[in-house]
């Protein structure tokens, strides 16, 4: 970068050097995380948070549309997306959610550490999950 090059997104801050060349790059890194955290780790976190938000929204809407997993305990009958949280906390379902999400996080952290330390060639967010074969014959572009 040129000396004193300014960020497009935040013109009062200097341009973050480590963001050059990434898709959608407008220099938005106000806390300068890219200076001390590897970019692959930041990209992995961004993808994970986006996927979690998509799943959360889908679950939120599915409850109000009447989708249910059977057999349901009677305590879950008549729940809306607004009232579901408190009812599920009383039933202990949030503890199960925390447990299984923790297990998934520990398992996924192994892949992230391999990506960062061993140069495995794994791209951020790629767990190689393609059970139906959508990616067969596709190019990297």
UniProtKB/TrEMBL annotation:
Major localization listed first in the record, in broad terms: plastid
Which residues of this UniProt protein bind chlorophyll b? 51, 116
Tell me the GO molecular function terms. chlorophyll binding
> What InterPro entries does this protein's entry cite?
Chloro_AB-bd_pln (IPR001344), Chloroa_b-bind (IPR022796)
Annotated Gene Ontology cellular components are: chloroplast; light-harvesting complex; membrane
The alphabetical list of record keywords is: Chlorophyll, Chloroplast, Chromophore, Light-harvesting polypeptide, Photosynthesis, Plastid
Instruction: Answer whether the UniProt record assigns the keyword Secreted to this protein.
Output: no
In terms of superkingdom, the source organism counts as Eukaryota
Provide the residue positions that the database annotates as binding chlorophyll a: 34, 46, 49, 88
Q: Which GO terms describe its biological process?
A: photosynthesis, light harvesting
> Where in the cell does this protein reside?
Plastid, Chloroplast
Q: Which PANTHER family does the UniProt entry name for this protein?
A: CHLOROPHYLL A/B BINDING PROTEIN
Tell me, in a sentence or two, what this protein's role is.
The light-harvesting complex (LHC) functions as a light receptor, it captures and delivers excitation energy to photosystems with which it is closely associated. Energy is transferred from the carotenoid and chlorophyll C (or B) to chlorophyll A and the photosynthetic reaction centers where it is used to synthesize ATP and reducing power.
User: What does the sequence similarity comment in the record state about its family?
Assistant: Belongs to the fucoxanthin chlorophyll protein family.
Q: What is this protein called?
A: Chlorophyll a-b binding protein, chloroplastic
Q: Which organism is it from?
A: Ditylum brightwellii
Q: What is the lineage of its organism?
A: Eukaryota, Sar, Stramenopiles, Ochrophyta, Bacillariophyta
